[in-house]
Amino acid sequence: EVQLIESGGDLVQPGRSLRLSCAASGFTFDEYAMDWVRQAPGKGLEWVATISWNSGVIRHADSVKGRFTISRDNSQNSLYLEMNSLKPADTALYYCAKDSGSSGIINAYDLWGQGTVVIVSS
Amino acid sequence: DIQMTQSPSSLSASIGDRVTITCRASQTVNSYLNWYQQKPGKAPKLLIHSSSSLQSGVPSRFSGSGSGTDYTLTISSLQPDDLGTYYCQQTFNTPKTFGGGTRVEIK
Question: pLDDT value at position A102?
Answer without folding.
Answer: 81
